[in-house]
Amino acid sequence: MIRINKYLSLCGVTSRRGAESIIAQRRVTVNDVTVEKLGVIIDEKKDVVKVDGVVVKPVEHKVYVVLNKPPMVMTTLHDPFKRRTILNYLKDLPVRVYPVGRLDYDTEGVLLLTNDGDLAYRLAHPKYQVKKIYEAKVMGHFTKEDGEKIEKGIKLKDGAIGKGKVDVLGYGRVVTRVRIILTEGRKREVKQLCKAVGHQVKHLRRVEFAGIDTRGLKIGKWRYLNSYELEELRALVDL
């Protein structure tokens, strides 16, 4: 017997946290009955679980990849509004994987994907303080004082305190290039932090996630993680 959200993560459909979303969208059935509540317990040996009408079973071969996500692409495998999603760039991948965390529609850069539910869950969990590095172009002259405010912490829309380490990379005529390092990565956190100190983000790229980058990888392309990278990721989250 197992909880439905954990079963879905073992099947490589989504993370345990992501399972809550697809259940809420009424996309999951057990024995052809739509799952309407979180925490449903199933018998993985007898029950038939489907997502979007397709039977799902625990994966036998775990896969780990990094995608250099283009801007104006949804970080999801399914979009009811038919917008372009990351699935458009994973057609050559022989198995189904799902994203670890999210990148905004207009944000580009490093996106990890896997069908390993336990690793994905830990990498996305605030407990492990996984480092995410962003480079942004923001409007106006970003000052040392602006950076200090972000490093001390700023209240976000969800009530949490967001903060990160900030470095100014250079100044243009109307924009400033900054690097921001986060360890929690809440929804739209970089944009919220910069807006709070008076700067609108015009362009945002994630250049590193948990030590993984996309150097040598063209935008819209993906590659498998190597054994060293995978070992480092597992060690990072105590697996």
Chain-averaged pLDDT: 91
Percent range for β-strand residues: 25-35%
Number of domains: 3
Could you say which structural class the secondary elements and strand pairing correspond to?
alpha+beta
CATH topology of the largest domain: Alpha-Beta Plaits
Terminal CA distance reads 23 Å
Question: Which segments are poorly predicted (pLDDT under 50) over 5 or more consecutive residues?
Answer: none
SSE sequence, one letter per element: EHHEEEEEEEEHEHEEEEHEEH
What's the name of the CATH homologous superfamily of the largest domain?
Pseudouridine synthase I, catalytic domain, N-terminal subdomain
Q: What would CATH call the class of the largest domain?
A: Alpha Beta
Radius of gyration: 19 Å
Please tally the β strands and state the result.
16
Q: Work out the helix count.
A: 6
Instruction: Describe the sheet with the most strands.
Output: 8 strands, mixed
